[in-house]
Amino acid sequence: MQQPSLEPAAVRPFRPLALVAAAACLALGLAGCTDSAAEQEAKPDRPVLVTKVHFEDIVPERTFVATIRPRVESDIGFRVGGKVARRLVQVGDKVTPGTPLAELDATDLRLQAEQAEAELHAARTALAQAEAEEKRSTELRRRGWASEAAFDRQKAAAAEARSRLARAERSVELTRNNLSYATLTADTDGVVTATLVEPGQVVAAGQTAIRVARLGEKEAIVAVPETLLARVRQGEATVTLWSDPDRRYAARLRELSPAADPTTRTYLARFSMPDAGDEVAFGMSATLTVRGGTGEKAARLPLSALFNQGSGPALWVVDRETGSVALKPVTVARYDAREVLVTGGVEEGDEVVALGVQKLDPAQKVRVVEALAY
């Protein structure tokens, strides 16, 4: 006996239509999956930019702000006191030995020289008279007409006159020297870095009047913290000017202060620059770079080659023959501004992807289009 249907009569006519629609949807889905698989198989190899791994010694660098200064800078002053009459140089003037720098009012010095000359003439006159009397006394003593005491007095007077003449001659020389000291002159080739006197100023003997820097060897002066003293002593140093950062000058440690500055607690270091020419001016700002090897080797690679999604740094290594890529974890020694130093995880000569590492996956084929020299 046939069981009666529980479905409403209005629903029964629509069952065949629903089955037909489901079949059509299934056919369309299978067609879409087939097309997607076909597209994936036909997808071309991804072009990649690679760089070769090359291990070299890690050379840590440390930079310091430096100032270019002369190795020898002399404070020149008058050897006699007086009133400054003229200053003959300006800051920045180049001088040679004998170049006049400043002059004193030489009126008093000239009077002293004239006085010494007068005393010299008087001493010569007195000596001539004493020698004549000594000669007469000697003759009288020989004939027996003069006493021994009188002869001794005339002899002592002549000796005193000779001494006075010698003293007068030395006095003349000293006053002449003092008169020449009224003109301050340079004693070496150099450049004027400071003028500390002006006309009308009264200066004492030895007071600094003009500062002259010698044009010989130039130096880079830096302040070194005590934690970096060993690196500064042993490292290799170079200097770059802020005005010309593309050129490097060799530098050599010449002097390291034995005591720290009481305020900054740093040590003053002087690095000589034997290759510095006229383009390196005194007072220029520079950067001193000290490099010192540690014996450890690392590969220097661009930061864009590093891949990290939370499981640690890694690199995509490319196999040119098969066109495949493999993700290899690496050990990083240091991160720089645009580079990374890798000490392990890859081998010498490996080619790693340098750009676009976030878009790669291990199943993807790649094609090397260019090798980046790094």
What does this protein look like?
The structure is a single chain. By secondary structure, this protein is an alpha+beta fold. Among the domains are: 46-57 and 296-372, Beta Barrel (conserved putative lor/sdh protein from methanococcus maripaludis s2 fold); 62-71 and 216-291, Efflux pump adaptor protein, beta barrel domain (Elongation Factor Tu (Ef-tu), domain 3, Beta Barrel), CATH 2.40.30; 106-181, Helix Hairpins. Helices cover 28% and strands 37% of the residues. Strands 3-12-15-14-13-16 form a six-stranded antiparallel beta barrel. A five-stranded mixed beta sheet has the order 19-18-22-1-23, with no helix packed on it. The protein has a four-stranded antiparallel beta sheet with strand order 2-17-21-20, with no helix packed on it. Strand 20 and strand 21 (339-344) form a beta hairpin. Helix 2 (107-143) packs antiparallel against helix 3 (148-180). The longest helix is centred in the middle third of the chain and has 37 residues, at 107-143. The two termini are 89 Å apart.
Could you name the key traits of this structure?
alpha+beta, efflux transmembrane transporter activity, MdtA-like_BSH, disordered N terminus, conserved putative lor/sdh protein from methanococcus maripaludis s2 fold, 374 residues, Helix Hairpins, Elongation Factor Tu (Ef-tu), domain 3, rod-shaped, five-stranded mixed β-sheet, signal, 4 helices
